[in-house]
Amino acid sequence: MQLAKQPAAHDAHDWPLPFASPRLGRVLAVGLAACAASSWGHGGVSADTQEDGRAIEFPDTADHVTLVVDLHTHSVFSDGHVWPYIRVAEAVRDGLDALAVTEHLEYQPHRAHLPHPDRNSAFDEARVAAAATDLIVINGSEITRSAPAGHMNAVFVDDADELLPMENRDEAASFPVEEAVAAANRQGAFVFWNHSWSSPATPNLRTKLTEIQRELIASDQLHGIEVVNGGTYSEESHRIALEHGLVLIGTSDVHNLVDWDYNIAGGGHRPVTLVLADERSPEALRSALFEGRTVVWFKDLLIGEPPHLQALLQAGLTLDDVRWHPSRDVVSVTLANHTESPMRLRHLTTASQSFTGQANLVDIDPHSRTQLTLRPAQAADEVRLEFEVLNALTAPNEHPRIALQADVAPRVQALAEYRHEGDPGFRIAFPEGSQPVAPDAEDQVFSASTPDGVTFRASVAPESDVTLEDTAAAWASGAEATGIGTDFEVTKNQAVTLADGSPAFRAEIRWLYLPAGVRLATQAVFAAHGGQVVSVAAHPLEDSAGVASAARIVESLRFD
Fold it and tell me: What structural domains and CATH numbers belong to the chain?
């Protein structure tokens, strides 16, 4: 298959376009009125506009700052349906570092109602709206022609009017595209080819280079190409980029509300370009674009050239908390995903190591951790895991590989395990020299304290309406209700798999223990078995060496 196309609220187009229906216009008017009601029309956007959990966040790489950028958007100053203020507010809510408002120079369907002979007007409005935020607003224009030239965006222009030195629409349509592109280049603009698959010259939705693009590439006046636009990823555009040294670009090309076009409430996101820059500034962003340091994020797919994609993946995926299991010849590995994208990884199993309790496919949610259990062929001080990243592309149908490695913590010498003989049967292991302590709750079946003073307890209680995922919060609420502590915060709560293959939740709860006036970082594992919930919790001092020991104790839980 040459082209992956998903439904979107709009597709890239050749002008002129049909107008939206009257009903859609009324709906848009109501929606935009609601959005602007608190902004007093064309005022500024507040930095507080950003919503928790909505921002697109990717880590910086070892050598660069990762900037989240959308370089193709429209407002009412061409064929979009919102004021530039809304574009800025959406960008702040999405956590973008930079936004280009790129109006069609020639196609102006709203001109009768919104005359603006200055083609920099949308940029000026957006810049004012963003004044109270740290959003970088970029001046840009869409050079709009029929095939074979098609549409091209010029970003980082100084004066858009110089790209179209006439007002008459008929004259604008015939103004040589080469002159418009040359004018943009004289201003130092970065120019890229838009939605190259959508043109009367390519009715089969396949991108083909024409003489115009070849000449612009040869003269170094065309610098990039959209491999993603809206709901479409083009394999042909991707190949052209690699064959001709064009920078990979992905954009929203949003005309309506971002939330409508990309179903943000349903978990969707706008396509963006991740630019690896030397610093967070317009100058560094422009330089990084010209140097081709980009990765495109589209529908949870990461697309980039090998060095840039590898750098982002190495920053986004890490092995944390790697150690030998206290009583079995397996290594426990915590794999962390620090990116906004869910990751699908295929472990490249070797004769020297394999996973236990799961297959070689690993799915990990954004900004989360998952626990893996590895059986190495022999004891080692270091673990190295190699994965194929199935939701990433270095070329059409080619996935990158990533190698992750980490030192293995020394094995903890365990005392004879506590074995619960009741229902359900389970075991936990703990450091040698631990001493029994009195239980402090009816459901506790075992209580002890390690040589370094970390108290730990195992409890069994009937299942209730509280899910395993919510058990940590319920535990914190119950403890606070007793008056033993305050300032409870669940700082970790993730689904894990026990060594025996049972599902569980691994949690960390930080709180102030009132009787001693000290802060604790309770480590806990909650697992259900046979209608019972087994909880193992250990209570080290916050940020102490005992946290690692406590973690090993609770994670040693396994059912017989």
Answer: 45-299 (3.20.20.140), 316-407 (2.60.40.10), 418-559 (3.40.1000.10)
